[in-house]
Every structure is written in structure tokens, then in C-alpha cells.
Amino acid sequence: MFTKICSALSRLCMWLGIAGLMLLIAAVSWQVFGRYVLNNTPTWAESLSLLLVLYVTMFGVAVGVRDSGHIGLESLLVLAPDWLRTKMEFLIHALILLFGAAMAYGCASLAESVWDYRLPTLGLSEGWKYVPAILAGSLIVLFSIEHLIALAQGREVQPN
């Protein structure tokens, strides 16, 4: 059941990332059109583009952790004996879990500290810049737990 929930969350992140990428392309296209055709650059387009890059990237990072697409030292794992390889994989996923928790906690603190400030061109709170990292950190924790459970059961998490 937990694996199905994580799989669904991963798929949702992928679809949200795709939607964010489409919005990003539209915002940048409008910015270029405004600058070179209308001779009037829309000020909100750059701020929105930067915000969308954060969302797309963080959703992609979370999906990458679930699908084991993150940077790893595979050569060391391949060379290690089976008994050591499993322990190393447990350590790797535990460290990724700690990183996700630290990222979510740290970014939540940052978001809270700047929530009253506004992005001048969008009128949104500055805190929205930290929300994608909070979400990604929380998802990284969930996906790492899924990997740890799978390792304990002697199986692998199947990517979407």
C-alpha cells in the first residue's frame, strides 16, 4: 500500500513538473515576445519563470530519489560483496532521508521568516520560493523510507 502511495505521488510530481515546464516555456516566450515585438517587457514574466524553475527542479529531484536516479557511487557498490553492499545501500538511503528532512526543515524555517515579504512583480509572498524545497524534502523522506523498507524485504523499488 505504501509503495502504491509513493508511486502515485511520484507520478503526480512528474505531471506537475511537466505542467510547470509548459508554464515556464509560456512565460519565457511571452517575455521574449514582449521585449522584442511589443517593445514592452512584462516585469512579472522573469519572476514567474524563476519561481517555476524552482518547482520543476524540486519535483524532478523528488522523482529522481524514488527512481534511484540521483548521483551515486555505483562502482563502489558493484565491487562490494553482497553483505556489505546491502549495508552500504541502507546507509545511502538513510543519509538521503536525513538530507531530505534537513532540507524540508531548513526551508520551512526560511519560508516562515520571509512569509510577510512580497515578491514585488508577482504580489506573492517570498515564502513561496521555499515551498517547493519543503515539498521535495518531505517527499525525499517518504521515498527514502520506501527504499529502506524494500531493502529490508530484499526487493527493489520499481520506478514509474
Bin the helical content.
over 70%
Catalogue the unreliable spans. Answer: none
Indicate the structural class.
mainly alpha
Order of helices and strands: HHHHH
What would the principal axes of the Cα set say about the shape?
elongated
Beta strand %: under 5%
Q: What is the count of DSSP helices, taking H or I runs of 4+ residues? A: 5
The overall pLDDT, averaged over residues, is 91
Membrane topology: Multi-pass membrane protein
Protein name: TRAP transporter small permease protein
Subunit structure: The complex comprises the extracytoplasmic solute receptor protein and the two transmembrane proteins.
Family: Belongs to the TRAP transporter small permease family.
Walk me through this protein's architecture:
It contains 5 helices and no strands. The protein has 160 residues and is mostly helical. The two termini are 15 Å apart. 23% of the residues are buried. The model has no long low-confidence stretch (mean pLDDT 91). Belongs to the TRAP transporter small permease family. It comes from Comamonas sediminis.
Key words describing this protein structure:
single chain; 160 residues; mainly alpha; 5 helices; 0% strand; elongated
Summarize the structure.
InterPro entries: DctQ, TRAP_DctQ. By secondary structure, this protein is mostly helical.
Spell out the blueprint of helices and strands.
Blueprint: H1 2-36, H2 43-66, H3 74-79, H4 82-114, H5 131-152
Helix pairs in contact: 1-2, 1-5, 2-5, 4-5
